[in-house]
Design a protein that fits this description.
The protein is of the alpha+beta class and about 220 residues long. It has a domain of about 140 residues: TATA-Binding Protein (2-Layer Sandwich). The protein has two helices and seven strands, in the order βββαββββα.
């Protein structure tokens, strides 16, 4: 386990070790780094890193190759890189082998091995740092969306309160109008009762008058 510590950056853990990997039926000596970060993110970042060395050819099973890679720290001549990424949900292992030419792979103890190891260590450090930033940004975006949601909810509640107040004012006005209408109706009913009595009296008087006229008519 190797820890890189900086006074301005957080500490990142990584496991770097020499290993041998079979790629396309060929056993290759190289370097492996284990990174405790989402495998899909590591795979994407590693492919981008390999592209900085040259044209990348992607194969099955997380295999990548960079024919004629340009890495001056390893060799002044083009070299052949072979890599394999084993990714899972919460971590990934990245294997890297370098063929300096004619099947001469970089091996433990050489200056080139130290450089190859440094490439993976630096990649692991930057990937963990990038992942922290990605996670922080994701959490920030979630918090921002939640804040915006709460603001919109508050604005809606305020509009609902204003609507409720207007509805209350309308209802109170209707209640007042209803009360006044009730008074008018009750007055009209009392007047109608008097009118009914007067009309009944007038009806009886007219009935008697008709009967009197009929009684006087010749038979």
């Amino acid at each position: 386990m190797v820890c890189l510590v900086s006074t301005t950056q957080p500490t990142y853990s990584q496991s770097v070790y020499s290993s041998t990997e079979k790629i396309e039926q060929q056993s290759m000596p190289g370097v492996t780094v284990s990174i405790p970060v989402d495998g899909k993110f590591v795979d994407k970042e590693w492919e981008a890193r390999l592209k900085s060395f040259g044209r990348v050819s992607a194969g099955r099973g997380g295999v990548y190759k960079v024919p004629s890679a340009n890495i001056p720290a390893l060799s002044s001549n083009p070299i052949n890189l072979s890599s394999k990424v084993d990714a899972s949900r919460d971590k990934a292992t990245v294997f890297l082998a370098a063929d300096l030419g004619s099947g001469e792979f970089v091996k433990v103890g050489s200056r080139e091995y130290n450089e190859l190891e440094s490439i993976l260590k630096e990649f692991a450090r930057k990937t963990q740092s990038g992942n922290e930033l990605r996670m922080a940004e994701a959490e920030f975006n979630t918090a921002q969306k939640n804040h915006e949601k709460m603001v919109r909810q508050g604005e809606k509640l305020q509009r609902d309160i204003e609507r409720n107040k207007k509805e209350k004012e309308t209802l109170l006005r209707k209640i007042d109008e209803n009360a006044k209408e009730l008074v008018d109706l009750e007055r009209a009913l009392e007047t109608n009762k008097t009118d009914v009595v007067n009309a009944g009296t007038e009806f009886e008087n007219r009935k008697k008058a008709v009967e009197a006229v009929r009684a006087k008519a010749p038979k």
